[in-house]
Design a protein that fits this description.
By secondary structure, the chain is an alpha/beta fold. The chain has helices at 6-11, 39-42, 131-138, 152-160, 162-198, 218-238, 245-263, 393-399, 414-421, and strands at 25-27, 48-50, 70-72, 92-94, 117-119, 144-145, 148-149, 201-202, 208-209, 286-287, 293-298, 303-308, 319-323, 327-332, 335-340, 351-354, 361-366.
Length: 455
């Protein structure tokens, strides 16, 4: 099955110059996608998402798409409406021709206040008696259901019979769930029978072979095997099977198998998963990403610091950090860097920060065992005497001053003379000094009362 990868999204984002972070619309229809993943981390600005005609069984990993307005999941294997509460801007949801039998799951859409259009045509729940009345009353924000506008009178009448209609819906829903359980059991039995019929048998040396004599006359067997395969394919397409999620998934796998054979592409073998832990539970040190790192012990803050030299221009959404008490794991584009920590840390208090200049990832991990340290006493620094050096000519000019004996000065001290001249005469205590006599007025003096006296 096809998985949503970065290369796939970039190919479908040619209209946006292959940029992912600012992508607002993407079409992933008819890709054989089996699971919704990565879109909520790589394309946060998505407004329109086309995923019709795939084999997606569950609505997931879209809760962080706050700007998503239109989600198209027509012709998939969805059996329940869920995980859409976080899509705050959702206006239109298309689930045409799916397998939604749990009609009460539409109550999950009550939190999507802006939802106006809902399409459930071709789902088993549309055959329930009272289906439209139940959905119209459960979702009062809807304006159209299955392409038909909801009138005010229809909403009022549906609300009056809501309790009885809901009870009938639940009974019909239980009947459908029992039917689905039988279909799943039948599909499992059919798959086991198919494996037993086509499975290989052990050879004489204990190993498994499909044909022991494949090394003989390979060219002669190719024509016979090709004709047999064509007959099997013809019989397969003539079989009558029920329309179930399991049958759609099986048909999709058959189509992909035939496509690979036609193009001569061998089926990719799943990669062997690396064992990250020992038998006793001790974590291994792994560096699949082959990045430089530095793990240091900060005694001042009582914490471990891990500096990972991540790529400067790599999007932060491609990195994932998982800190546990005994180890730390950093996943960079699917490749793991895991380190066994020398001391236990507190995962709930850890912090990861990305440098805006170098792009490095710095993870601060406080230790679990707190260390009590005494306060640092500030001691006065002892003055150290430097050895005296002979003064240079420059230092003499800057710091040497001549000392002159004031008794040997031959000049006149003008400051002393002025001080003695202006020094007030000393008078005995209690002596009253007379005020100076006033100067007589001139002959043309006129005493004007309007003029204020001089102070």
């Amino acid at each position: 099955m096809v998985r949503i990868t970065e290369d796939l999204i970039r190919k479908r984002a040619e209209h946006n110059e292959c940029e992912i972070y600012s992508l607002q619309e993407i079409s992933l229809h008819q890709q054989g996608v089996e699971r919704i993943e990565h879109l909520d981390r790589w394309c946060r600005d998505l407004k329109i998402l086309y995923l019709q005609n795939n084999v997606i069984p569950k609505i997931e990993n879209v809760g962080r798409l706050k700007k998503l307005e239109y989600l198209n999941l027509a012709l998939n294997n969805v059996e329940r409406i869920e995980n859409l509460e976080g899509c705050e801007s959702l206006k239109k949801l298309d689930l045409t021709v799916n397998f939604v039998g749990e009609l009460t799951s539409v109550e999950q859409l009550q939190q999507n206040q802006f939802l106006q259009e809902l399409y459930l045509t071709g789902n088993p729940c549309t055959d329930y008696d009272g289906y439209r009345q139940y959905v119209v009353t459960t979702l009062p924000q809807l304006k159209t259901l299955d392409g038909k506008a909801i009138q005010k009178t229809e909403r009022i009448l549906a609300r009056q019979e809501y309790e009885e209609v809901r009870r009938n819906i639940i009974e019909q829903q239980k009947t459908y769930i029992q039917k689905r359980l039988k279909e799943k059991e039948e599909s499992e039995r059919k798959a086991e029978a198919q494996e037993a019929r086509t499975g290989a048998q052990p050879g004489f040396d204990g190993r498994w072979y499909t044909d022991i004599n494949t090394h003989q006359s390979d060219s002669s067997n190719k024509n016979g095997e090709g004709g047999k395969e064509e007959e099997e394919d013809e019989e397969y397409w003539k079989q009558q099977v029920g329309y179930t999620p399991e049958s759609r998934l099986e048909i999709q796998k058959k189509i992909e198998e035939q496509k690979r054979k036609k193009e001569g592409i061998e089926e990719e073998k799943p990669k062997k998963q690396r064992n990250l832990f020992a038998e006793d539970g001790r974590p291994y040190n792994v560096n699949e990403a082959k990045v430089d790192f530095n793990l240091t012990d900060n005694e001042d803050d009582n914490a471990l610091l891990l500096d990972v030299a991540a790529f400067r221009y790599m999007d932060t959404s491609l990195m994932d950090v998982d800190v546990q008490p005994t180890y730390v794991r950093v996943t960079i584009k699917g490749k793991i860097l895991q380190l066994h920590l020398p001391e236990e840390v507190r995962p709930d208090s850890c912090k990861a920060v990305r440098s805006q200049t170098t792009g490095n990832l710095l993870i601060t991990m406080p230790k679990a065992n707190q260390v009590v340290k005494p306060l640092k006493v500030q001691q006065e620094e002892k003055k150290t005497t430097r050895p005296t050096e002979p003064p240079t000519e420059k230092s003499r000019q800057a710091f040497e001053r001549l000392e002159v004996d004031p008794t040997k000065s031959k000049g006149v001290d003008f400051a002393a003379i002025t001080a003695e001249k202006h020094k007030p005469a000393q008078q005995p205590f209690g002596t009253v000094t007379s005020r100076p006599a006033e100067r007589p007025n001139s002959e043309d003096f006129v005493d004007d009362l309007d003029v204020p006296p001089l102070m």
